[in-house]
Write a structure and sequence with these properties.
The complex is a heterotrimer.
Chain A: H1 9-18, H2 25-47, H3 74-78, E1 84-85, E2 88-91
Antiparallel strand pairs in A: 1-2
Chain B: H1 9-18, H2 23-37, E1 44-47, H3 49-64, E2 76-80, H4 107-114, E3 118-123, H5 157-164, E4 170-175, H6 181-187, E5 190-193, E6 213-218, H7 221-231, E7 261-265, H8 275-290, E8 294-298, H9 306-321, H10 340-351, H11 354-367, H12 373-396, E9 399-403, H13 419-423, H14 430-435, E10 439-446, E11 452-458, H15 464-477
Parallel strand pairs in B: 2-3, 2-4, 7-8, 7-9
Antiparallel strand pairs in B: 1-3, 4-6, 5-6, 5-10, 9-11, 10-11
Helix pairs in contact in B: 2-3, 5-6, 7-15, 9-11, 9-12
Chain C: E1 4-15, H1 40-43, H2 54-66, E2 70-71, E3 74-75, E4 78-81, E5 91-94, E6 101-102, E7 105-109, E8 112-123, E9 127-130, E10 135-138, E11 145-151, H3 158-174, E12 187-197, E13 207-212, H4 215-234, E14 242-247, E15 252-258, E16 268-269, E17 276-277, H5 280-290, H6 294-305, H7 309-316, H8 319-330, H9 335-353, H10 364-376, H11 381-394, H12 398-405, H13 413-426, H14 428-435, H15 442-452, H16 459-472
Parallel strand pairs in C: 13-14
Antiparallel strand pairs in C: 1-11, 1-12, 2-6, 3-17, 4-5, 4-16, 6-8, 7-8, 8-11, 9-10, 12-13, 14-15
Helix pairs in contact in C: 2-5, 3-4, 6-7, 8-9, 8-10, 10-11, 11-12, 13-15, 13-16, 15-16
The chains are: A mainly alpha, B alpha/beta, C alpha+beta.
Chain lengths: 97, 487, 473
C-alpha cells in the first residue's frame, strides 16, 4: 500500500474553492473523513502498472453540416433566469482577481 | 377480473388499437392507481394529470378518425426526473433545479410520444443519479413496494417502484453504473440498459457522459422490446449516438436455450455476495442448464478494480458536467448582493446535496494537477483493460450471467451515512457500464423475507435482441416475474 | 534593446467564417441584440449535448494547410474547466493534448518566418457588460467557432509582431478562413514578451499583453513593454510574471492580474465528443479549395507580368483584386494598363461602394470594352473616366454609357471650327501670345475648346485647327 496523498483539510478546502463549494466547519470534518476513506479504498488502482492504450474502441465523432437554425426566442432564453435586465442575465458584480 | 393497471404495455396498446378500451381509460386507471397507492411509496415526484388525459384524448381522436396508431398507443409511461420535457418541470432530484422548466423534450421521450405513449409523470431519483437507494433525492425517499421500510434501489428507484406497484407498465430510467438494473432487481421487475449510444442521451441531464445510458423498467420482456424498438437509433443531437441495425422489437423468445453458451464470470458470482442472493442465482443457473444452455466458467480479471475505476471516472465527469449550475442562467440562486463568485458558491453549496458535493470534490481531485494521472488517468487505462476482458470472454460465450446486486433491498437509512458501503452496491453492474455493453436484469427469486432477487445478463455491444430472447426464455420457464408485491 | 535580446511570441484567435456556431446550429457572424443568437446548447441548459460543425473543422484544416502545418488525422476536444459568468457550461470546449494541427509557420517578409507551435479549435465565451445593477451577461458570442494559432517565441522585435499579424491576416483572408477583422474582434491577439541578456540562452520572465486591437497597436504595446522591462532590468529589478492590459489612448499598459499561481484548469478529454478523425479526402478537399497564397501570387505577378513591385503589392493585398486583375488581362487588357486602372479607378470606387468585388458593376470584360473605345479614339482619357463612373453608378456596358452620356469623340472640322473661332475670340491675349511665339499659351485655347465640348473634342484635331486658324490670320 503506497502512501495516499495528504488529503488534508487544506487540500479539501482548495478543491472546494476550485469547485465553488463552501464547506462550513461542521461539514468539513465529515467530508474529510469520507473523502479519505474513499481515496484510500481507490488507491490500489493508482498502483497498478497500466499502460495507456489510447481510444481503440471509440468511433470518430459525427460532424454536423454547417446550417444555421433559428435561435431560441429571447423569452425562452431568459425563462429560467433568476434575474434579468435589458434582455441579459444579471449577476452580482464580477470582481476580477 | 384483470384490471387495466395490471396489463402489460403490449396488451394495453393492443386493446387501444382494437378499440376495446380507450386511451383515456388506460391513463385514468394509472392516475387512479397513483392516487391510491403512491402516497405510501412516493415513486412519482408529480404527474401530468389533465395534460396526460388530454394526450390520451388525442390518441382516441386519432383512432376515431381512422388514423394508424403507434406500437405504444395509449400506454402511460413514467419518466425519470432527469429527462427533460418541454414546458414541464425537471429537477434531477435536486434543489438546484426545483423550478426548472426545459424549452425542449428529450429525444427518447419524443420518440416514445411518436410511438403513441402518453407521458404520465416524472419519477423520483437520487440527486443527479448519484446514489443507489433514491435516498439522496431532494424530494425525499421512495419506498420499496415489497417492503416499505426498504429502499427501492437507485438511482432510478422511482421508476422501479412505479412499475413494480402497477402505477404504470413501463417507466424510463437512466443507467450510469447500474441505476436501472439495480433498482429493477430490488423491486422485482425487468430493467434494460442498452448499449452505450444506442438510445440518444439528448435531453438526459448528464451525470457522467461517457457512461450515461437511457434505459427502461417494465414487467415483461416484450414491453422492454417494444420500448427499445421505439427509442433506439442514431440522433443528430447526440454526437455519441450510434447507428446500429434496428432491433427486431418484440423478439420471439427462444423456446429453449439449446446451443446458447452462457459465461459465468467467477468474479461476479461469489465474492462478497449475500448468501440468499448466491443461492438463488445458483438455482437460476441450474434452470438455465435444464433449458439446454451450456454454462461456461470464465474470468474478467479487471473486475477487481471496476468500482474505483467507475467512481473515479463518474466523479471526474460529474464535477465538470455539474459546473454549469452556477446560478447565472437558471437554477436556484443564493448570495444575491455579494460578488458573482460568492453568489455562485452560495448557490451551489445550497442547491446541491451532500452526496453530490462529495462527488464533485472527489471528481475535482481526480482531475486536478498533480493527481490526474494517478487517479483519472489510471481509471481510463483500467477501463481499457476491462473492455479487453469482456472481448476475450465473448470470444468463448454468447452472454454473461451474474446476480444484479450483491444484496437484496436494504432498510432505509442503513447505508446513507456510509458512501463507500453504498458504492459497493454497484460492484456487479459497473463492469458492463464501463465497457458500454447492453445488460438486463430480471427477477429470479425471492429472499425468505420476500424481497426480490435479480439476475443480470450482459451481451456484446448491440446484442440487445439476444438479451431479450434469453431473458424471455428464462421468464417463460419460471414465474418469478409474475409475483406482485403485497397490495 | 540595449544589452538585451527581446523575445516575443504571439497567440492569435481567429473566428472561422461559418454559418453556424461550433457546437450549435445558432447563427454565427454578426451579433445583434443581446441573447438573440443563442441555442439551448449555447446556454448550457441541462440535457444538451454539443453538435460539432463540419465546416469549422474544414476551415481549421484549411488554415493549417495555408500555414504549412501538419494536420493531425486524430485529434480530441478537451474541456478546460473554470468558472466565469460568460462561460455557460463552466468549461470551455477546446483542444489540449491533441490539437488539430502541429507546426507550421507565418512569413515575416524578406525571407524570414516565425514557427508555429500548434493550431487548435475552440469555442468562444460570451460577453460581460458592467452596469449599475451588477454585471450583465450576453451569450451571443458564446460558442462562436475559433481557432487559436500559437506561435513559437521566434520574434525578436515589436515590428516582427506587426509583420506576423499582417502576413497571417493576409493568408487567412486568402484562404477564406476568416475575415480577420481585429477591430470587430474576429481576430484577437495576445502577446508574450520577455528580455534576456544578449548571449544568454535562458528566457527572461514573460509578461502577457492583452487588449491589442490592431497590428499597429500590437507593435506599440510591445515597444512600450520592451522599454519598461529594459528599464527595470537595467536598474537591477525583477520582472513580475503578470498579464497587462494595453491602453492605447494613454500609450501604456497596466497590470490586470498576477500569474504567479497558474490556474488549475483540469483539462481532460470531453466525454461527450469522441475523437475528431480527419481523413485524407477531407484534407485534400481543403487543399483544393486553398488556391494560390499571397507569396506565390506575388512571385508569379513579378515574373509573368513584369509589373513593378508597387503594382505587385497593390494587386495582391486582397485575393479578389488579383482575381479581377487577372480576368481583365485575360480579356486582352495590357497588364500595366489594367493595374493602373485598378489602382486609380476600380479600387477607390469599390471601396466607396462596399460589397464583394465579384459584384462590382464594372466587370473586367466591361473595362476591356471601355479601354477598346479609348484605343479606337471614341473616348479620350477624360471621357473614359466619366464613362467608368457612369458604369459604376448604372451598371451597364461601356457602349451604353457612352450613348447615355452622349460622349463620342468630336473630330470633324465642321463641328470644331466654330468652337476654335470662339476660343480665339474669347481669349485674344492668348492668341496674341501664341503668335508672338509663346507656344505654351496654346494650352489655354485648347482648354477652352475642350471645356466647350465637355472633353469630347479630339485633342489632335483641336491642335491642328487652332494652329491653322492662328496661321491664317
Amino acid at each position: 500500500m503506497t502512501a495516499e496523498p495528504d488529503l488534508d483539510r487544506a487540500l479539501v478546502q482548495h478543491l472546494a474553492d476550485l469547485a465553488r463549494l463552501h464547506l462550513p466547519a461542521e461539514r468539513l470534518a465529515t467530508v474529510l473523513q469520507n473523502a479519505r476513506r474513499i481515496v484510500a479504498a481507490f488507491g490500489a488502482l493508482g498502483d497498478l502498472p497500466l499502460e495507456s492504450g489510447g481510444d481503440p474502441d471509440l468511433q470518430p465523432v459525427r460532424l454536423r453540416t454547417d446550417t444555421a437554425e433559428p435561435p431560441l426566442p429571447l423569452d425562452q432564453v431568459l425563462a429560467n433566469a433568476p434575474r434579468t435586465a435589458g434582455g441579459m442575465f444579471v449577476v452580482p458584480r464580477v470582481v476580477d482577481g | 377480473m384483470t384490471e387495466l393497471w395490471q396489463l402489460s404495455a403490449a396488451g394495453l396498446a393492443d386493446q387501444v388499437r382494437r378499440g376495446s378500451v380507450s386511451a383515456r381509460d388506460v391513463v385514468r386507471a394509472s392516475l387512479d392507481r397513483i392516487e391510491r397507492v403512491d402516497p405510501a411509496l412516493h415513486a412519482f415526484v408529480d404527474h401530468r394529470g389533465e395534460r396526460a388525459l388530454a394526450d390520451a384524448d388525442a390518441i382516441d381522436g386519432a383512432r376515431a378518425r381512422g388514423e394508424p396508431l403507434g406500437p405504444l398507443a395509449g400506454v402511460p409511461i413514467g419518466w425519470k426526473d432527469n429527462l427533460v420535457v418541454a414546458g414541464e418541470r425537471t429537477s434531477a432530484g435536486s434543489r438546484m433545479l426545483a423550478d426548472y422548466r426545459s424549452p425542449f423534450t428529450a429525444t427518447a421521450l419524443q420518440r416514445l410520444q411518436a410511438a403513441g405513449a402518453v407521458l404520465l409523470g416524472r419519477t423520483n431519483m437520487d440527486e443527479f443519479g448519484m446514489g443507489s437507494s433514491t435516498e439522496t433525492s431532494a424530494h425525499g425517499p421512495t419506498r420499496n413496494p415489497w417492503h416499505r421500510d426498504c429502499v427501492p434501489g437507485g438511482s432510478s428507484g422511482g421508476s422501479a417502484a412505479a412499475v413494480a406497484a402497477g402505477l404504470c407498465p413501463l417507466a424510463v430510467g437512466s443507467d450510469t453504473g447500474g441505476s436501472v438494473r439495480q433498482p429493477a432487481a430490488l423491486c422485482g421487475v425487468f430493467g434494460l440498459k442498452p448499449t452505450y449510444g444506442r438510445v440518444s442521451r439528448y435531453g438526459l441531464i448528464a451525470y457522467a457522459s461517457s457512461l450515461d445510458c437511457v434505459g427502461v423498467l417494465g414487467r415483461s420482456v416484450d414491453d422492454l422490446a417494444l420500448w427499445l424498438a421505439a427509442t433506439a437509433g442514431v440522433d443528430p443531437a447526440d454526437p455519441t449516438s450510434v447507428a446500429a441495425a434496428p432491433t427486431t422489437g418484440a423478439a420471439a423468445p427462444a423456446a429453449d436455450l439449446r446451443g446458447v453458451r452462457i459465461g459465468v464470470p467467477w468474479q461476479l458470482n461469489g465474492p462478497g455476495l449475500d448468501d440468499e442472493v448466491l443461492a438463488t442465482v445458483q438455482t437460476a443457473l441450474a434452470t438455465l442448464r435444464e433449458l439446454g444452455a451450456e454454462l461456461v466458467e470464465c474470468s474478467l480479471p479487471s473486475v477487481a478494480h471496476a468500482v474505483p475505476t467507475y467512481y473515479l471516472l463518474a466523479m471526474a465527469e460529474a464535477a465538470s458536467n455539474l459546473a454549469r449550475y452556477d446560478g447565472v442562467r437558471y437554477g436556484a440562486r443564493r448570495g444575491e448582493g455579494t460578488s458573482c463568485d460568492a453568489m455562485t458558491t452560495a448557490s451551489r453549496s445550497r442547491g446541491f446535496g451532500d452526496e453530490v458535493q462529495l462527488r464533485i470534490l472527489l471528481g475535482t481531485f481526480a482531475l486536478s494537477v498533480g493527481y490526474q494521472d494517478r487517479y483519472y488517468g489510471q481509471a481510463i487505462r483500467a477501463r481499457e483493460l476491462l473492455r479487453s476482458d469482456f472481448a476475450r470472454a465473448f470470444a468463448a460465450c454468447d452472454l454473461l450471467v451474474s446476480p444484479t446486486s450483491p444484496v437484496p433491498a436494504f432498510p432505509l437509512g442503513s447505508r446513507i451515512d456510509d458512501p463507500l458501503a453504498m458504492y459497493l452496491c454497484d460492484a456487479l453492474t459497473v463492469p458492463a457500464s464501463l465497457a458500454g455493453l447492453p445488460a438486463l436484469s430480471q427477477p429470479c427469486g425471492y429472499t425468505a423475507a420476500g424481497l426480490p432477487i435479480g439476475l443480470q445478463w450482459t451481451a456484446p455491444a448491440f446484442g440487445e435482441d439476444r438479451l431479450l430472447q434469453v431473458a424471455g426464455a428464462f421468464a417463460a420457464a419460471t414465474d418469478h416475474h409474475s409475483r406482485r408485491p403485497p397490495a | 534593446m540595449n544589452g538585451f535580446t527581446t523575445v516575443i511570441g504571439l497567440e492569435v484567435h481567429v473566428q472561422l467564417a461559418t454559418q453556424s456556431k461550433l457546437f450549435s446550429p445558432a447563427p454565427s457572424g454578426a451579433l445583434g441584440d443581446p441573447n438573440t443568437r443563442v441555442h439551448a446548447i449555447d446556454l448550457g441548459l441541462p440535457g444538451v449535448l454539443p453538435r460539432p460543425n463540419a465546416a469549422a473543422v474544414e476551415l481549421a484544416v484549411r488554415a493549417a494547410l495555408a500555414l504549412g502545418g501538419d494536420v493531425q488525422r486524430v485529434s480530441r476536444f478537451a474541456r478546460k474547466n473554470y468558472f466565469y459568468p460568460d462561460l455557460p457550461k463552466g468549461y470551455q470546449i477546446s483542444q489540449f493534448e491533441s490539437p488539430v494541427c502541429l507546426g507550421g509557420a507565418v512569413p515575416l517578409g524578406a525571407g524570414r518566418s516565425c514557427r508555429l507551435q500548434r493550431i487548435h479549435i475552440e469555442e468562444d465565451a460570451g460577453k460581460l457588460v458592467h452596469g449599475e445593477l451588477g454585471t450583465l451577461v450576453d451569450l451571443n458570442r458564446a460558442g462562436m467557432p475559433l481557432i487559436e494559432i500559437v506561435g513559437e517565441p521566434d520574434l525578436r522585435a515589436p515590428a516582427d509582431a506587426q509583420a506576423f499579424l499582417l502576413h497571417l491576416r493576409e493568408i487567412l483572408r486568402y484562404a477564406a478562413v476568416s475575415d480577420c477583422d481585429m477591430e470587430l474582434g474576429s481576430m484577437r491577439c495576445d502577446a508574450n514578451i520577455s528580455l534576456m541578456p544578449i548571449g544568454s540562452d535562458r528566457y527572461g520572465t514573460k509578461v502577457e499583453l492583452k487588449n491589442l486591437n490592431s497590428p499597429k497597436m500590437v507593435q506599440r504595446a510591445l515597444e512600450y513593454e520592451e522599454r519598461r522591462q529594459a528599464a527595470i532590468l537595467a536598474a537591477g529589478g525583477r520582472i513580475a510574471a503578470e498579464t497587462r492590459g494595453w491602453n492605447d489612448e494613454a500609450g501604456e499598459s497596466r497590470p490586470q492580474r498576477s500569474k504567479e499561481s497558474a490556474p488549475d484548469y483540469r483539462y481532460f478529454p470531453d466525454p461527450d465528443l469522441p475523437p475528431l478523425v480527419i481523413d485524407d479526402a477531407r484534407i485534400e478537399a481543403q487543399r483544393a479549395r486553398l488556391g494560390e497564397l499571397p507569396q506565390q501570387r506575388r512571385d508569379r505577378y513579378r515574373s509573368a507580368f513584369g509589373l513593378p513591385e508597387h503594382d505587385v503589392v497593390a494587386l495582391t493585398q486582397d485575393r479578389a483584386v488579383g482575381e479581377w486583375f487577372e480576368a481583365a488581362v485575360q480579356t486582352g487588357v495590357d497588364a500595366k494598363t489594367a493595374s493602373n486602372w485598378i489602382q486609380s479607378d476600380v479600387l477607390p470606387a469599390w471601396r466607396d461602394r462596399g460589397g464583394p468585388l465579384a459584384e462590382f458593376p464594372v466587370t473586367p470584360q466591361r473595362l476591356h470594352e471601355l479601354l477598346q473605345l479609348l484605343a479606337q479614339g471614341t473616348l479620350t482619357q477624360v471621357t473614359a473616366r466619366r464613362v467608368f463612373r457612369h458604369m459604376v453608378a448604372h451598371a451597364g456596358s461601356a457602349a451604353t454609357a457612352v450613348q447615355q452620356l452622349g460622349l463620342s469623340r468630336i473630330d470633324d472640322a465642321d463641328t470644331l471650327a466654330p468652337l476654335v473661332a470662339g476660343a480665339l475670340a474669347a481669349l485674344p491675349e492668348a492668341a496674341a501670345a501664341v503668335r508672338a511665339g509663346k507656344e505654351r499659351a496654346l494650352d489655354a485655347l485648347k482648354g477652352h475648346v475642350m471645356r466647350a465640348t465637355k472633353g469630347r473634342a479630339d485633342p489632335d484635331a483641336v491642335d491642328r485647327l487652332l494652329r491653322a486658324a492662328l496661321a491664317a490670320d
